[in-house]
Amino acid sequence: MKSPVGQPAEKFPVLLCGTHEHSKEVMRLIRIRKEIQFFVKAGIGELVAHLAESREILGGEADGIEQRHRRFCCND
Question: How many CA atoms lie within 13 A of 60 on its CB side?
């Protein structure tokens, strides 16, 4: 099979890619991005949960490090 410019097609794999393959790749990238966003949001919630647990351990008193983390995780 020859490409439109007369070169062997294996040198131009992009020319063989149809819109179906392209759309599948785009959907795959979107799905990966959504998974990453989900894990990032879940990670922030986990940090807040750890801060709440550490407050219970300290008897309701938070030190400076915990306050700094709380401000960091609550700013979006």
Answer: 0
